[in-house]
Amino acid sequence: MTSEASSRSCRARIGMPRRLARKEDSTILIDMVPIAKNEDSYGSTASTSQLNGHQEAAGRMGSPSKPRVDFVLVWEEDLKLGEQQDSTIRDKTDTHAAWRETFLENLRAAGLCVDQRTMQDGPGTVHYILLSAPWAVLCYYAEDLRLKLPLQELPNQASNWSAGLLAWLGIPNILQEDVPGVPPEYYSCQFKLSKLSRFLGSDNQDTFFTSTKRHQILFAILAKTPYGHEKKGLFGIDQLLAEGVFTAAFPLHDGPFRTPLEGTQASGLTQRQILFQYWARWHKWYKCQPLDHVRSYFGEKVALYFAWLGFYTGWLLPAAAVGTLVFLVGCFMVFSDVPTQELCSSADNFEMCPLCLDCPFWLLSSSCSLVQASRLFDHGGTVFFSMFMALWAVLLLEHWKRMSATLAYRWGCSDYEDIEERPRPQFAASAPMTALNPITGEDEPYFPERSRLRRVLAGSVVVVMMVAVVIMCLVSIILYRAIMAILMSRLNNTVLAAWASRIASFTGSVVNLVFILILSKIYMALAHILTRWEMHRTQTKFEDAFTLKVFIFQFVNFYSSPIYIAFFKGRFVGYPGNYHTLFGVRNEECAAGGCLIELAQELLVIMVGKQIINNVQEILVPKLQSWWQKFRLRSKKRKARPREAAGQEPWEADYELLPCEGLFQEYLEMVLQFGFVTIFVAACPLAPLFALLNNWVEIRLDARKFVCQHRRPVAERAQDIGIWSHILAGIAHLAVVSNAFLLAFTSDFLPRAYYRGTRAGDLHGFVNFTLASAPPAFAAAHNRTCRYQAFREDDGQYSPTYWNLLAIRLAFVIVFEHVVFSISRVLDLLIPDIPESVEVKVKREYYLAKQALAENEALSGTNGAKDTRFLGLEKSLGSQLTTPGVGQASPVPSEVTGVTSSR
């Protein structure tokens, strides 16, 4: 490997004047609450594993002669192909080279050390740009970005009531595991350079800024550094990646994830190795997740996702247990159910009318197995289970709010969205004006709300159009089912003819799944373009708007077919001699067992089928992609360095990994699953069990992806899971309404109760009660009479029983909804969103901050004055913070870096 390190790039590191050399401001930063003293609390914020781990594996800690690598940029160059390019492609290549050079020069001007390494073989070259930030640059941007840094170590506040209960009872907790190197917790506040010595660990430049903080600073610089005219969007690493100027940009992992020796002590493990050993292994499937370790290594956003996934999976356990019990009750009731026994033993007593125009007459007893299967799901236990799941969803979300608030406080993110979060670089570059932020008091890029509203409305029209496309696909599936049932019923094969409706329904579900997956890919790209055009100020608001668009589409995409089967299929059929049609094709009817068994089948095909496909994709596709990436790069390496040792640089090893694609798809998968588990649970009590089994696999699968297969993502802060919490609440409310209508109009629960109450008190004769006779005109035309499922008179008009049942069904819906919503409201009032202990701590911090502010104001005119030698520098830093172009990284003053940067 050849090194092309620039002589200009790292002059800022040696002999650089430290800004902490100024006379420290003597005012009180924050008056801490007295806690137990710990002599090791001061001097370093790094945990034992961070200090003693295999730091040499990645060369990250650095020294004056070997800078620490914070970020890596990569681009590949095909020299052989370049000789054969035409003028247009050559011009594009030259433009990319110019952009790249400008971008790197601007990074140097921002104070970064830029070191280029090249791996070259005959036909191609891979260029690695190793970026590192000097101490003064880190301090400057930490204040600019309002990063929170530690003041004083706290006792670990993690608590688990179930673990405490088991400990009190003396029962061993098999779910808990002692993970080494638990990251400490701190009192923290926004970094102020003038009070550097007050921050914990400020005397150790190597460990004061953790790797995640360094990555955040480097990525913030990369995101807003220009390579052309900012107003034309020529800025930021994201745009350069999209244009193909660079092929990758990533922070380095903390060394290899596998331990080099079997007997390696826990204190010698890196953070990545700890996560692999105690989190990402399959045999840890029943262990609690080390969320503090995940947050320390990957950031709050990733940690909150795994916190939500683990929390949701844990709550699925009681739901799965109750649902399985309800299903087993149905299994026992099948053989003792009177109407089912009557139907199966009816022989030729009930001859049924044809199900389509050219279909034959058929016997009701031929559907015995189908009716028995429907009784597994359609019985009195499903009413209890539906109400149980509605309250389960409410309790889950209420307790998640409490856990989310607790984690946000512990991780210092409680006010992130309101105060700390900065405008998106893309927004800042395109915003037409600036305005004063009423919270921070700073002048920030601004886009008029009225203009944004117009764009949002225009984007909503596109969303509606895409929803219409989904509905058109649904109609085509309905027609497919009807036509397929007609064609199969005409076959000479009696078995296929008897199961024509079932086969058509099943194949229709498979075709619907294919449509779902194809349309999802198309709409994702469209939603991203629309959301970018809407000009949302912060990354959180951008992601919320994007999420809402995609979820609306995916909701219709995934749930349209189950909703049709549950609430519309078989409702508008008509009666013999007067059937309703759609485009000349007779409307579908529910089979003899009702539409509930078909809905259960649809849910299992979509939900379980999607889970299997996703898991296979997440296991096989990354392995194939990773194998190809390693094969491609290592073949170049063997050609370039055939005589070198087999050692591999850390940036080369990480480049062989797959790019991290974010958490959106993971959240979407879980939220859609939550919808299947709650909205249609009356039709499939086993849905929570399948979800639980899938999530046990999903947690470890996602953990392995982040630790072993993907490049390390940039650590992002987050206050909560964003708009997903509101979507989950909306699904929970919709589930109450959906299950009420399912039980009232799709299930046989109310007709059975009505029959038992108006007849002899049992269900003998119930099958005959649910069947109507064909009108005389139809019977005369076919020279035979037949029966069909409906509450109608002989002339086809609705009978009084139909209207009585309709009133009972509507009353049931109203009572069910009001009871569940009332209980939910009471639970919402009784369970506060934020635990009382957290509220007390938050109020205490606000009080201490207020006291500190008052003391600062009182001392500012006396002994709290700053050293005038650095007062001008501080003012210059403040002006530099607001004067650069809105899409441009703030250049660090030469007083800080000790070098005048050239561009």
Could you walk me through the main structural features you see in this protein, from its secondary elements to its overall organization?
By secondary structure, the chain is of the alpha+beta class. It has a 5-stranded antiparallel β-sheet. The chain has a two-stranded antiparallel sheet with strand order 5-6. It has a two-stranded antiparallel sheet with strand order 8-9. Strand 3 and strand 4 (124-132) form a beta hairpin. The longest helix has 46 residues, at 595-640. It starts with a strand and ends in a 6-residue tail after the last helix.
Approximate strand percentage: 5-15%
Distance between the termini: 28 Å
Structural class: alpha+beta
Shape: elongated
Largest sheet: 5 strands, antiparallel
Rg over C-alpha atoms, rounded to the nearest angstrom: 33 Å
The number of distinct β-strands equals: 17
Summarize the structure.
About 55% of the residues lie in helices and about 10% in strands.
Task: Throw out a few tags for this protein.
903 residues, alpha+beta, five-stranded antiparallel sheet, two-stranded antiparallel ribbon, 32 helices, 17 strands, elongated, disordered N terminus, disordered C terminus, protein dimerization activity, membrane
